[in-house]
Write a structure and sequence with these properties.
Number of strands: 15
Shape: globular
Strand order of the largest sheet: 2-10-9-8-5-3-4
Number of helices: 13
Largest sheet: 7 strands, mixed
CATH topology of the largest domain: Aspartate Aminotransferase, domain 2
Bound molecules: pyridoxal-5'-phosphate
Radius of gyration: 21 Å
Structural class: alpha/beta
CATH architecture of the largest domain: 3-Layer(aba) Sandwich
Strand content: 5-15%
Number of domains: 2
CATH class of the largest domain: Alpha Beta
Length: about 400
């Protein structure tokens, strides 16, 4: 039978994720599949963990990629570190905070929501005030991808420690692209995703947990509700020493080829330039693109000081059909950007500034194509972009 199949197009991925996957990473993905208990794969796992610790800026032994997308990381976080009846302060200032609150409620937590308008960070004083009434955990989205806002964590770790509570964060879009220091900031556990600033295909959730979080796990009287995400079992597979054993025990079959890809993607993140330099590059790229799009009439949603460098959320120029422009961008120019979600549907463009896209060339392509679609001359926006990169 002759089936006609859709050819996979080559797109420039400048949306909210997945992001550009470099050829090096795609080639790693296509390496031969080997057995997941093969000693060579054990070595690859260890190397991946070492690189991941560097990216997270942590010494946590319990650092590993959870098998599943970023949302699996969220499930793992809640399944391991939130018990039914726990009082959990949850920051909600966008779609991912909403999702977290939903996940916590499903886990039987007593959820205390501390909200901010979509597009703003949450005043940390309000999170601290909610913590004063007692809590078992605080959960915040460090990088709110639905709006392009970075949430400050100042004082949150101390407040949690004072009450013997855990500080848990979603850093899906900050890992590798926005300043993030798990150990220095006293974060007890965190999860991320591979398809944002790490420039790896989706399918894994980098995860890290410190001693205070693991102690809570050890105190459990009966096993948690999730078998697949039970960290004590998963650690027996990834880091047997951490789980009190010596030999790696089969738990599930790791997505072998995705691990190869993640290892290669992490090498780019931590070896090609110092992590601080990568953060700075994202900052410069963010502002250069904001200035260029500003010439076209786009305004950033996040106010100064609250912006998330890897995700630029801007209002589209007045009087245009934003969805039509995005579709033309994709189908005529092979460039993907994302639209708004929830209350921001039709009101926001979300442009990824993630790893390989935090560079002048892809940004020039985007600005040039947008000018063509909007009937604008590209000179001024391109000059603003170049100026931003020089600054
Ligand atoms: C992308 C994202 C997720 C979910 O990741 P998936 O890979 O889509 O499951 C969670 N939180 C944030 C902040 C994200 O940006």
């Amino acid at each position: 039978m002759n089936r006609t199949l859709t050819e996979v197009p080559r797109r420039l991925l400048l949306g909210s994720g997945p992001s550009i996957v470099p050829d090096r990473v795609l080639e790693a993905l296509a390496s031969p599949t080997i057995g997941h208990m093969d000693p060579a794969f054990a070595a690859i796992m260890s190397e991946t963990i070492d690189l991941l610790r560097e990216a997270f800026q942590t010494e946590n032994l319990a650092t590993l990629p959870i098998s599943g997308t970023g949302s699996a990381g969220m499930e793992a976080l809640v399944a391991n570190f939130v018990d039914p009846g726990d009082r959990v302060v949850c920051g909600v200032h966008g779609l991912f905070g909403e999702r977290m609150a939903d996940e916590l409620a499903r886990a039987g937590a007593d959820v205390v929501r501390v909200e901010a308008e979509w597009g703003r960070a949450i005043d940390t004083e309000r999170l601290l005030a909610a913590a004063r009434d007692g809590l078992d955990a605080m959960v915040v989205v460090h990088a709110e991808t639905s709006t392009g806002v970075a949430q400050p964590l100042d004082g949150l770790a101390d407040a949690c420690r004072e009450q013997d509570a855990l500080l848990l964060i979603d850093c899906v879009t900050s890992l590798g692209g926005h300043p993030l220091r798990i150990d220095d900031w006293g974060v007890d556990a965190a999860f991320s995703g591979t398809q944002k600033c790490l420039n790896c295909p989706p399918g894994l959730a980098p995860f890290t947990a410190g001693d205070r979080a693991l102690a809570k796990l050890d105190r459990r009287e009966k096993p948690g509700r999730s078998w697949y995400f039970d960290l004590s079992l998963v650690l027996g597979y990834w880091s047997p020493k951490q789980a009190g054993g010596t030999a790696r025990a089969y738990h599930h079959t790791a997505p072998i080829n995705l691990i190869y890809a993640l290892r290669e993607a992490l090498r780019i993140v931590v070896e090609d330039e110092p992590l601080e330099a990568a953060w700075e590059r994202h900052r410069v790229a963010h502002h250069a693109l904001r200035d260029a799009l500003g010439v076209l009439g786009c305004t950033r949603l996040a106010p100064d000081g609250e912006q998330l460098h890897p995700l630029l959320g801007v209002t589209p120029p007045d009087g245009i059909d934003e969805a039509k422009v995005r579709t033309a961008l994709l189908l005529e120019h092979d460039i993907e950007i994302s639209g708004g979600l929830g209350p921001l549907t039709g009101k926001l463009w979300r442009v990824g500034v993630m790893g390989a896209s935090a560079r002048p060339e892809p940004q020039e392509r985007l600005v040039g194509a947008l000018c063509e679609l909007l009937g604008a001359t590209p000179d001024e926006p391109l000059a603003a972009l170049a100026e931003g990169w020089r600054a």
